[in-house]
Amino acid sequence: MGIRQEAGQRFFQTKGDASLGVDPTAVPASALIGRVEYVLPGVGAVLASLATTSGGLAALGLLGGLLLAVWVMDHLLTALRSSSRRGTVVAEPVH
After folding, report:
1. Is the dihedral of CA 28, 2, 18, 50 positive or negative?
2. Which of the two residues, 85 and 59, has the higher pLDDT score?
3. Residue 9 parent element (H or E)
């Protein structure tokens, strides 16, 4: 949330994901480990919603819908391919 200098040392004021305010103590720069490689905005919110019952059910519903759509498309393409080999038409256009 912020960086400040104090007695020649740099401190970072942080805020946790689950808290509304800043953390009570600042972290000295010497205590930091690692660095940010990637930022994926919104991923934390998605993971948090998946941890709820309604979020998990929504994810299962979405996955089920996608699987059903892939299954239907596969069967339609299979029918089109087999009918084109036989020279038959699966459906006539409506005018």
Report:
1. negative
2. 59
3. strand 9-13
* Residues linked to residue 3 through DSSP beta bridges, in sequence order: 12
Phi, then psi, of 42 in degrees rounded to 5? 90, -15
CA–CA separation, 43 and 75 (whole Å): 34
- Strand-pairing partners, residue 11, are 4, 28
Decide if 27 contacts 14 (C-beta within 8 A).
Answer: yes
The pLDDT assigned to 87 comes to 66
Question: pLDDT for 26-80, tens place per residue?
Answer: 999 999 888 889 899 999 899 999 999 999 999 999 999 999 999 999 999 998 8
Cβ neighbors of 70 (< 8 A, separation 6 or more) are none
Sequence-ordered list of residues with C-beta below 8 angstroms from that of 82, at least 6 positions apart, any chain: none
